[in-house]
Amino acid sequence: MLAVIARCCVGQITPSAVGACNSLRNDISTKQPTPHPNSAAGASSNPDEDSAAENELLESANKSRELAGAPPLRIDESLREAARLHTRLMITSNRLEHQFSGELALLERIAQVSSVTGALKIDRAGENVAYANCESAANDALMHSPPHRENLLDRGFNTAGFAAIWSKGKLYVVQDFAHEVTSYSAQQTRTLVGETISEMRHEAGLPELVQLAPPKLDEAACSLAQESRPNAHFLAAAFDNRRVVTYTQSHPETLPPAALAMLCDPSVRQFAVGSCYARNAAYPTGTYWVAILLY
Q1: Helix (H, G, I), strand (E, B) or coil at 130
Q2: From start to end of 181-223, where are the E strands?
Q3: Which entry of 77, 96, 141, 284 is 20 to 30 Å from 248 by CA?
Q4: Bridge pairing between strands 48-49 and 243-249
Q5: Closest by alpha carbon to 160, among 197, 106, 226?
Q6: Kind of pairing between the strands at 159-167 and 48-49
Q7: 173-220 pLDDT, tens per residue?
Q8: Which of 139, 130, 131, 125 is nearest to 176 (CA)?
């Protein structure tokens, strides 16, 4: 099943951190667990994005992650654009929020942007929002705030998009984090699932199954995304009432426990795999829909 963790952390810079800033520098924001209605600076009709500040935030985050033994974050343009759009909403609304009235939730807005910019495949996401007047103090405050630090150092996140936009002397920041999953073609997925089944059968002392390739099985797997869940009965009727295993996974080679008994049945001689990466309301950023026919 698709695991979704959306951590929402908000905050503002502390007075002591502000005092540590050089007033000549363009710098960034920080956070506290819940937004305060009076914590945001006034909105500007023409906010300026600070790409240098975004890069400094990323560099600081990756230095901290390296010290913590976490993999570096790679910038993704879909996440960056989602962060920019939300930052502008914060400036326009004159407050820090993770979801404004009428705005999509984090995963949905990432999905909306990524469908245009390249269909980013993720199974987890998180977000930090903040404002400040100095990058060094912002990073300092973020790292000393447990919920923001948790997002920044989360080993499960491997990609991110940072936005930093100035408005009336304050730098508004949104940091969107995600875990990008490996992108497989339908053929690659069929191979991965087939290898897992062969290994499982071998460990059980059972003969290897012959893998078939019936027509339109991938299309049938895609049709599962139109259902609220992967419905095995839906496919069984379309494929001569074969025994069918269906599941969703961000790692398609990971078979569901319920499938093990069926796949280790000594009477089974052949199998076929259909696969499709698709989105629906339950999986806004998509997941692999897999169907296995048993003969």
Answers
A1: strand
A2: 210-212
A3: 77
A4: unpaired
A5: 106
A6: antiparallel
A7: 899 999 999 999 999 999 999 999 999 999 999 999 999 999 999 999
A8: 125
